[in-house]
Design goal:
The complex is a heterodimer of chains A (147) and B (71).
Chain A: H1 3-31, H2 38-53, H3 72-104, H4 114-139
Chain B: E1 6-8, H1 10-16, H2 22-29, H3 33-40, H4 48-58, H5 62-65, E2 66-68
Antiparallel strand pairs in B: 1-2
The chains are: A mainly alpha (147), B mainly alpha (71).
Chain lengths: 147, 71
Amino acid sequence: MNKTQKGAIYCLSAISLGIAICVYLVIKIYFLKSIPEKSSAAFWMAMYFLVTVSSLLFLRKKQSPNEPDTDERDDLIKKRAVVCSFVSVWTLLVFTSITPQFIVGPEGSIPAWALPLINLPIFLIAMGIYSIAVLVQYGRGSKDGEK
Amino acid sequence: MAKSKVRNQVRRLRFENGEMTQQQLADLAGVTRQTIIAIESGKYTPSLPLAFKLAKIFGLTLENVFQLDGQ
């Protein structure tokens, strides 16, 4: 597994954990109408600490001193993953722009605190899609170069 | 435009050149071993500079290392 793959896995893990925390907090605060306990905050902080420390796994001895960190195939895979991520940002932006009209009505309004809750996950999901695109291309050996 | 598939003789040439390992070939070509694996299995078609580099490593012309399907 090379650096790009490990970076994608780590990014996906961190984003998944972040999304899980956000969903938990939203449900806890706005639907169950209760404040999260101190112990749950400590639990989630510990999880994030573990995810951060696990990045030490990326420290990898090169199989050969001449081995490059990335080569043309890695760059091509990352380029395609960026394109996927870019398309997903646009798709999500359009979706989140249209959906509130159906929830609160065309003349409705949403509180200001909802905006970061809507916009930040878009970019987190875009990063997740980038990571998935990288892993899928490496996983199937990718038919790069074949046009 | 019709799809073209490029075949290569990298694996055979690697064995014929002193049983070269994939890592050794990767080091000479300046790419990762994963890329050499992908080229040999036909899952990745290298760029022209890399293709020329590989041909030069084996001391052959490009056509002797890479062929279009049908050739």
